[in-house]
Structures are given as structure tokens and as C-alpha cells.
Design a protein that fits this description.
The chain has 165 residues and is an alpha/beta fold. It is 51% helix and 18% strand. It contains 5 helices and 7 strands, in the order βαβαβαβαβαββ. It has helices spanning 12-24, 35-44, 61-71, 86-94, 108-148; strands spanning 4-8, 28-32, 49-53, 76-81, 100-103, 156-157, 163-164. The strands form 2 sheets. A 5-stranded parallel beta sheet has the order 2-1-3-4-5, with helices on both faces. It has a two-stranded antiparallel ribbon with strand order 6-7. α3 (61-71) links the parallel β3 and β4 (76-81).
Length: 165
Amino acid sequence: MRNKVLIIDDESVTLTLLEKSLERESYDVICANSGQEALTILEREEFDLIISDEVMPGMTGTELFAITRIKCPDTYRIILTAHANLDLAIKAINSGEVYRFFTKPCNMDDLRLTIRQAIEHIELKRENLRLIQKINDLKRTLKNLENDQPGITKVKRDSDGAVII
């Protein structure tokens, strides 16, 4: 399954550049020209990662991310901006709304690395959830087995630690 990335920017040149770059990395990429368009897309599709410009007409990237943090809390979010504001970056990252903050023009190698790291975190979280579910299933199986055959899951040992049969 390919990881899905939503890119939001009001500049078509930036959208095209990011879209082509990420498609070469084998990501499934969808683009939006505004925060409102992104919210419409998010109503019908789920994404692993959202990359948004900060300064756009109608809604800023951090305003969009405040909404998406609630609607899709497991989605990672990256801000791109030509208007670097250290206070904004610190606030956005500390509030948990943004995974990383890049200034435009950004180094594409750094951005691709950050995206790979975000995707790795997402996949590790999914694997952890899968393993937790498996552990819980096994616990239920053992509990049912113990209910059907009391003592079957208990091991008796002698003073040397050998199993008593």
C-alpha cells in the first residue's frame, strides 16, 4: 500500500514541484489550492501526511492544522512557508499541530528525508497497534483456555526450577 500525501499551496508552481518530487518517491499524492479545498478532500479520504503552505488566502496552514489535528489526529503535518516566523514555528510544533516546519525555498533532500521519517513513524505506530491487538487476542485465547481447562496455563516447578508434569 502506497502512503498518501495531501499537499496544500496556493502557488501552482510549488504544488507541481512537490507533487512530481513525491510521486517519484512512490507516494500517492493529492493536491489542493486552499485550506477549504483540503478540508473537503479530507472529508472523503484519509492521508498519512499533510504538507501545507502557511500563508494562503482564506485560511493559514496552522489554522488548517488546528482543524486536522482534531479530525485526523494520526496524520502527520508539515508546514512550508516563505514567511519565516520563529515564534509561529515553535508554537505550532509545541502544540502538536506540526511535525516539522520548513522555510521556502526548502532543501528538497531535507524535505524528502523528513517525509520518509514521518512515514516511518506512522508505519511503526501501525505495527505497534497491530502487535498490541495480537497480544490482546492471545490473552483472550489464554483466558478462554483457562476457563475451559482450569490450571492448563499454569506451570508448576520444583525447587530447582524444573517443570513438574
